[in-house]
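ok trying again, last paste got cut off:
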Amino acid sequence: MTKGYLMNSLIEKMLSPDQDFRFMGLNDLMTEIKADQNCFLGDEAIENKVLDQVLLLVEDKISEVKNQAVKCLGQLIKIIRQPQMETVVDKLIDFSGGQDEELRDISGLALKTITAELPPDGKVAVTACAKLTPKLLEQIQKPKTPPEALVETLSILSILISRFPALLSGATLIPPPLVVLAPLLSHSRPVVRKRAIITLSQYIPISPPELFHELLKANVFPFLDESANIEKQRTTVQLVAAVARHSPLQIAPVLSQIVPGVLKAVQKDDDELREGSLQALEAILLRCPTETTPYLDAIVQTGSQFIKFDPNYAGDDEDEEMADEDDDELDEIEDEYSDDEDTSYKIRRSATKLLSAIIGTRPELLIPIYKSVSPVLISRFGDRESTVRLEVWATYVTLLNQTAVYGLPQSKEERKRKRDIEKAGAAEGPYSLLQTQVPALSKALLNQLKSAKTPPATLQAGFSLLHALLTVLPGSLSTQVPLIFSTSKAILSQSPTTTTSTLHLTCLSFLALFFSSHPPPIFAAPLPSLTPVLLKSVGERHPRITSESFRVFSALLTALKPVKAGDWVDAVYDQAVSKLSNHDTDAEVRECAEDCVADLWVSANEVIKNKGGKEWESICRLTGKTDGAVRVVTKVAREVSVGDTWVNGVVEWLLNLLKKAGRQGKPEIFQALDVLLKSYTSGVPPNLAPVLVAQVKPYISILDIALLSQSLSILALLLKLTPRTTFPEVEKYLLADIYEISHSPLLSPTALESLLSFYAALVQADDQISTHVVPSLVISIEKAPATNASPANVARCIAQVVKSQLNVAAGVIAEYSKNIKKTSKAKISLIVLSLLIVGELGRFIDMSTQRDIFTNTIDHFGSEKEEIRVAAAFAAGNIAIGNLHQFLPVIVKLAESDPKKRLLSLHALKEVVTHCSQGQLEGVAEMLWVPLFENSETSDETTRNVAAACLGKLATTQPSRYLPQLHARLRETNAATRATVVSAIRYTFADNSQSYDELLAPLLVDFLSLMLDDDLTVRRLALSSLNSAARTKPHLIREHLASLLPSLYKETIINPELIRTVQMGPWTHKVDDGLDARKTAYETMYTLLDTCLAKLDLHEFLSRVIPGLSDDSDEIKVISHMLLFRLAQVAPAAVSQRLDEATPQLEKTMKGANVTKDTVKQDLERAAELQRSALRAVVALSKIGQGVSPRFDAFVDDVKKTSQWGPEFRDLLSAH
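nice, full thing came through this time. structure:
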C-alpha cells in the first residue's frame, strides 16, 4: 500500500460521521507511525491534510475521539516538519486561550502531551523550545487569558524547563520569563499564584541576574517587612521556598536579607503564613547550608516552638504522653479534640519536617540536638493528629540513623572505647545522651502502640522506630518487655491480610533483633505468652511471614543457648521439617527453615539429637538450590559433634554436589569439606581419600584460582589427617599437575600459601619424596615457556620443602649454589632460579660457613641481565637475614661506596628490613639509618622510594628515637629529602600496631603539612600519606581535619600552570603534570568518607565531588561516581540537595563518546565503562532523590527509556 493511499484512507476514516470510525482512524494513524515513522513523511500536501484533520478532531464533540487526537499529536510532534509544528502549536495555544472550557482543557492536555513526548535530543526539541516558549509567554501576557488556561500554560513552561534546561538557557527568550511571570504573583486566584511561583523559580537560573535582583526588590524584600500585607507575605514566603528549592545558587547571596524576615513572619498569628514560613526555612536550610549556618540556633528554636503549636488543645503535652491512661480515655481525648476546621496540625507537621532537615544535614549538631530537640520530639510522640505523629516518629528515626552513622567511631575497637568512656561519665556524646532518654522515649512510644484500635500504619511506624533504636543502642529496651510482648502478641495473633502483612513482617523483624540484643533473663519469664503466636506465624501461608518467623526463632535459640527443653522447640522442629519435606515450599522459607534447623542443633542439641535426624534427608538433596544446605551442615559440623555416620553421609552428599557442572556453590562446598574432615572423631575412613582425591583433581587448574586454593588446602588437610591412604593417590594422580601449577605467575597470594601448605604436608607424609619434589619443580619450570614461568613461586615452594625436611637442605644448597658461580655455564633462567632458591633458603639457614655463596651473589650485581641483577639483590638481602652481623655490613658498604650498585644494594636492604623480626631489626637499625638517608637525597624516585620504605619500617622499631629524626628533616631545602621523609611516614602506617601512636600523634600534622609544599612530588606523596593515615590510623587525624582538608581540597582543583603541550609527530597532546596528585586527592576523599565521615563538612565535601564529575581524567570521574554512590548511602539528605548540580555532568557522561573518523574501538569501550560507572551512581541517587530535583527525575526517566541502559538500570535497582 502506497503512503499516499494509506494516508487518504485514514483521512476518509477521520471524516466519517461515525465516531467509532473517527476513533479508529486516529488509532490506525498512531499504529502506523509507531511501526514506521517514515510512513507519514512524503507528500507535504497530504501531510498537511492529515495534520489538519487531527487538529479538527481535537475539537470533536466526543471525548474519546478528542483524547485519541491528543495522543496522536504526541506521536506526530516527533516527526513533522518545522512549519507544521508551528501550525500545531499556534492552533493549540489559540484553543487553550479560548472561552470554550472543554476545548481549552483538551488543548492544554495536548500541549502537555507534546512537550512531554518531545525526544530529548535532536532538532525537534531545539525548534520546539525556541518556538513554543515565546508563544506560551505571550499567552500569559494576554489580559483575557482565563485563569485555568494560565495554570495549564505555566505547567507546560515548567515541563519545558525541567526537560530542556540547556536548550532554554542558550536561547534568548523574548519577552523574558521573569518579566512576564512576576505580575502573576499578584493574581487574584491563589491557584494561579502558586503555579506561577513554581514556574518563576524554575526560570531564575537561566535569567539575567539583574532581572532576578529586580524581582527581589519588587516582590520579596518589601513584603518581608512586619507591616506588609498578610496575603502578600504568604505569597512571598512561598516564593522564597520555591526559589531556594530550584535556584539555590541565585538566592544564597541575599539570604542575610531574607532569613530574618522569614523568622519574623513565622511569629505572626496566621496559620497559612506560619506553615509557608516553616517550609521556606526548611528549603533554605537544605539547599543553602553554608549561608544558613549563622541562623541555625534561631531556626532550631523556631522548629522546637512550633512543633508544640496546638492552640485548640489546652492539655500539658508532656503529662499527656507520659501518663499511662487506659485506651478508652485516649479514644475520648482524640474524639473530643478532632476538629475539621483545625489546621494547626499543618504547622506542627511543617515544624517537624524543619527539625528533620536539621537533623538529616547537620551531623555536627548531634550533641546539641540530643540536648534540646530530642526531648521535644519525645514529648510530641503522642500528637493527636496521626500524620504529625508519624512525621515525629520518622524524624526520630532520622536522628537514630544519624547517630548510627556519625555518633559513634567507625571501627569496632574505637566504638567500644568511646562507649566505655561515655559510660564512665568522662564524655557526654550522642550515645550517652540517647541512653538517658530511652526510658521516656520507649514509654511514650509504647503507650501509643498498646491500644487495640491503633491503625496498622501507626503500629508499623512505631516498630520501625523501635528497630532503629535497638540498631543504635542494643539491649536498651530491657524495662519495657511486658508492653513489647503484649503489643507484639496482639499484632501476631491476628491473621495477616493484604494491608497488615507488612506490619507483621516489621514486628517479627523487630522481635528477632530484640532477642539477639537482650540477655535471656530479661525476657525468659514472659516468653511463654509469646511463643504460641510466633508458632502460629511460622505456620502462615504468607511465605515472607513464615521466613521472618523462622528468623525470630533462630535469634531466640541463639540467645537462649543451651536450650534444655521446651514444647516450642519441638513445635519449631516439626514446622521446619514439614516445610523442608514439602517440594513446593518457597525458596526463602526453605532457606530460613534450614538455618533454623542448624540453630536447633547448635542451641538445643540435647532435644534435637533424639529426633532421628529425618531433617537431613530433606536438607541434603541433590536437586534445587543447595547453598543454604551446605552452609547449614558447615555450621552444625563446626559447632557440635553429630557423629561419624552423619559426617560420612554429608561428605558423600557434598562429593556428589562437586560433580555438578558450573562453579556456583563450589567454594562453600570446599569450606564445608574442610570443617567436616576435621570433625571425624575416630579418624578419616580409609576409603575416603581415593574418592576425594579423584573429585578434587578437576579443580587442580589455574582456570579458577580461588577453587584451586581451596582444593590444595583440602589435599594438605587430607595428607595431615590420613597420610598413609592419601599420599599414594596424590603422588599417582595429582603431583605432576601440581608441579605445572607451581610455576604459574597467575597464582594469587592465597593460592600460593595453600600450595606451600600442600608441599609441607606432602613431604611430612613421606620422608623420601622431598628429594624428588625439588628437581621435579625445577624441571617443570625449565620446560615451561618464559611467559608462563614464575621462578619466585618455584623458589618459595622449594624453600618450603626444605624447611619441612631440613635433612635435604645441604644437598639443595650445594646443587643450586654451583649455578651462581662465575665459572657456571648455566642458562640465564636457571641462574635466576638458583639465586632465588638460595635467597629463600638463606632467610632461615645461616650461610656464613659458605661465604662464597654470598660473594658470588654480590658479583651478580654487575650482570648485564636485569633479571639476574634483581634476583641477586633479593638473594643477598635474604642471605644477610641468616647472619646479619656477617653479611649486612657488606651490603651497607656497597650502598655507600658504589653508585652503580646503590639501587640493588638498597633493594637488598629492603629485603632485610621487610623480613627481619622486630628483635633483629632493633639490633641493626642504627647501622642502616644513616646510609639509607644519605642515599635518599637523589632525584631518582625509584631509589628514594626503596630507601623510604626501609626508613619507615625502621621508624616503627624504635619510634621514640627515629620519628623525631624524621620530623627534624621536614624543612630540609632538598626536595628529595622532604619527599623521602613523607614517604617514610606513609610506610609507617602499614604497621597497624598502636604502640607508637602517642609519639606519632603530635608530629603527624607537621608531616602532612607538606601537602602545601612547593614541590609537586612532595605534595603528591603527602596526599598519599594522608590517604594511608585515614585508612589505618583515622583516630590520629580526625581532630586535625579542619586544618588538613583545605589543603586536600586545593589539590582537587585543576591547575592550568601544570598543563603543558607536547608535540607527538603531527599531533599535539596535552599533558597534565598535576593529574597524579589530583587523583590521589580524590582517592583520599573516598577513604575519608569511610573512616572520618563525622568530621566532614558534607556541603564543602560535595563542592569538590561535583567538579570531579566533569574532570578531564576518566579515572577521576569514576572515583567521583563512587563518591556519589557512597554518599547516597551515608548522607542521603545532603547529597539529594545537590542533584541539580550533578545532573548536567551525569547527563553528559551517559551520552557516551562522540564518534568521529579518529574514534577507535578502545575509545568506545572506555566510554561504555565510564557510562556504567555513572549509571551505578545514578541508580543509587534515584533511590534518595525522587522529587527533589525535577531535572534529575527527568534525566532518570530518559535513562530508563533507552534500550541500551534501561535494562541495566532496572537490574542494578533490584540488586541494591
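cool. The two ends are 50 Å apart (CA to CA). Strands lie at 1059-1064, 1067-1072.
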